[in-house]
Amino acid sequence: MRIAMLGTRGVPAAYGGFETAVEEIGSRLAARGHEVTVYGDRTHPHVTEHLGMRVVHLPAVPVKQLETLSRSGFAALRTLAGARPDAAFVFNAANAPYVSLLRARGIPVAVHVDGLEWRRAKWGGAGRAYYRWAEAHAVRTADALIADAPGIAEYYALEFGAQTELIRYGAPVLQRCSTAPLTALGLEPEGFHVAVARFEPENHVLEIVEGYRASDARLPLAVVGSAPYSADYTRAVHAAAAGDDRIRLLGGVWDQALLDALYAHAYTYLHGHSVGGTNPSLLRAMGAGTATIAFDVGFNREVLADDAWCFADAAQLATALHEAEADEPLVIARGLRARERAARVFRWDDVAEEYERLAQGLAAGASIHARSRSARRTVQNAR
């Protein structure tokens, strides 16, 4: 089959969960003999083929509100201009306006709807209204909807009565990982806590730093992340960390060997994400065999099978850190169970097989469009 993948920054993966998913899924589909084209940005302009996938680079408007939408618009136009794909996977419900264009050319489209983006504080009233509209438009125009977590599938069922394909992310499982990259940071294996997240309110980086600072933790905290569009929030995080030598703000880390070492050799991983579905950062920590202290929402509890410490505010995080540092055997046991669950439940081979099955169904004419094209939010959830 010809398969198009659009709506992300593309491959090689160097940014977030969607890009990693495209790389992992697309490369496996290519290995199975499919012709996979990935549309993305101009980060790697000289890469035209990657792991068997054809790579197409596109411009974008470098403004928070328009970057994804503009890049995806160019990707849709390029898709329309080329050989017609047998199936297209569009990542991010924000790109829903282009689904009708693709379907008008006879291209069946599945939309990976992601998390509840409209709940993010970085979007103002217009941005949140747009994301809610885009969710509804994706339901009414797509041939299939992909949810990466049971909570997302339940949301679309309750909000719109819409059927989704539940296809999880995969987790990279690390059995052995060098400690050498930690040396330059002055970190000891199993001798630090780590948090990895973009600096956004919904990822609770500020609460993590405040809770850690208020705690009696012996082990230092390494914080990986940045915020391209949130200067005020970044300043608040830095202010909260100022004067506490235990807190190391590392900024964005793009060296995969260093990231792997941070995940694999941390004493615990602090996970503050609250509005996504199955989060890739959490899966990386699980696959690395690291125990987690997670923000207390259903998405995180489900992924972790409730085998973790949870917190809802800075004070609860301080308590969780105290409990974790006081019980090393439990930390080790939870880390081992997390890795076993990651290897058993979150397998990229299984994910790619589900995408292939869905693409085959779409190419054969399977579609929810007839049932969902008139869908509306239920009255109690209309606001």
Structural class: alpha/beta
Strand segment tally: 14
Radius of gyration, Cα only, in angstroms?
21 Å
Secondary-structure element series: EHEEEHEHEHEHEEHEHEHEHEHEHHHH
Distance between the termini: 41 Å
Q: Tell me the domain tally.
A: 2
Return residue spans where pLDDT drops below 50 for at least 5 consecutive residues. Answer: none
CATH homologous superfamily of the largest domain - what is it?
Glycogen Phosphorylase B
Name the CATH architecture of the largest domain.
3-Layer(aba) Sandwich
Shape: globular
Please sum up the structure shown.
With 383 residues, the protein is α/β, with parallel strands linked by helices. The protein has helices at 17-31, 67-81, 99-104, 125-141, 150-160, 205-214, 231-241, 256-265, 280-287, 298-304, 314-325, 328-345, 348-363, 369-372; strands spanning 2-6, 35-40, 49-50, 53-57, 87-91, 109-112, 144-147, 165-166, 193-196, 221-224, 247-251, 268-271, 291-295, 309-311.
Structure description:
It contains 14 helices and 14 strands. Helix 6 packs parallel to helix 7 and helix 9 crosses helix 12. It has 383 residues and is an alpha/beta fold. The protein folds into two domains: 203 residues, Glycogen Phosphorylase B (Rossmann fold, 3-Layer(aba) Sandwich), CATH 3.40.50; 166 residues, Glycogen Phosphorylase B (Rossmann fold, 3-Layer(aba) Sandwich), CATH 3.40.50. The protein is globular, with a radius of gyration of 21 Å. The mean pLDDT is 94. The strands form two sheets. It has an eight-stranded mixed β-sheet, sandwiched between helices. Keywords: Glycosyltransferase, Transferase. This is Glycosyl transferase. It comes from Agrococcus baldri. GO terms for molecular function: glycosyltransferase activity.
